[in-house]
Amino acid sequence: MTQIGNKVICPSCGAENLPGTLFCVQCGTYLPSGGPLRTEPLPDQEEGRPARSHQDEGDTEGKRAVNIEIEILNTGRKIMLSADREILVGRLDAAHGIFPELNMTTDGGLEHGVSRRHARIYTHEGMCFVEDLDSTNGTFLNDERLTPYLPYAFRDGDLLMFGTMRLRVHVFTNR
Known about the structure:
Layout: E1 2-4, E2 7-9, E3 16-17, E4 65-72, E5 78-82, E6 87-90, E7 102-103, E8 117-124, E9 127-132, E10 139-141, E11 144-145, E12 152-154, E13 159-162, E14 165-174
Parallel strand pairs: 6-7
Antiparallel strand pairs: 1-2, 2-3, 4-5, 4-14, 6-8, 8-9, 9-12, 10-11, 10-13, 13-14
């Protein structure tokens, strides 16, 4: 960000903006405040220590690790995620502190109607669940629209839709 006199110059398009403007009026780029940039630590991590998973708590004997492969049908991208903790599905919004584990931004999430905090995926007692977080364009499981804040079980091979973003889920369990 450059400042000329009382005007703030957008680093992306060069448009002049009034002081105190957070987003460029021309292209919508976030205009930093000018303060030092820094990276905040993740809430579950302490310096030098990995985040604890649910498997770290209590007896792990007999528990199965659950991994989920998400195939984004719109783009062909495949992502392997560990479901030992909640997976937030949505779009990245650093300005508001939203950092989803399954970030749909680069897959055209905005164009396909994916909310910033769209849904969550988690496991409970060996079963996988998806829950819509009151998204604008809805979450669908095998073409059935989900009621917000109600968990729905899904299985290997099921089709999920976040807005119009289509995904196929593959569930893997190992001891």
